[in-house]
Amino acid sequence: LLAVGAPGATAAVTVQNSTISGNSASASAGMGGGGVAFVGAGITLVSSTLAYNTAAAGGANVHQGAVAGSVLSLRNSIVSNGTLTTAGVPAASRDLYQPGGATVTSLGYNVVQVRSAATGWSATDAPNGTDPQLAALAANGGPTPTHALPAASPGVNLVPLAACVDAAAAPLLRDQRGIARQVGGDPCDAG
User: Fold this and answer.
1) Helix H or strand E encompassing 96
2) Does the pLDDT value for residue 54 go beyond 80?
């Protein structure tokens, strides 16, 4: 997913109940953001999983190209297991790259395995370095492949029922597969 705002305007993209996995950014151009790359845009990830994407530059899963006019918001999402293909790119920017001075707008309950130095994380987010233990991309029901969470994953039941909401803060009743997220008052899974 590439989002670029026009001069003087900001693009806005919301990714909800989605899996972005197995994509790559051009190694020959030294690009980042095998999953999502953006500049001059507001990107909101809600109950989504970005994993196993590949890039030559920082942010194999998410790459923010500039601070000005760019905002990254995450809610109940998983970002993990990115792959960098160029030697010398800091491992600390493997999954999520943001330029110096950038902040994340964390809306809580995220599992981002390797973060950049950006600030703005919530106390409800899993600590940096947390492995969500995603299963391989597979047919887990529904129309599209997903990464299942094994029972021991820190993403399982991470999201309290009151925080299991969509981008408009309405209850998020179903996941990407169409299966109920809110069952018997139990917490929701991240991603």
Assistant:
1) strand 96-97
2) yes
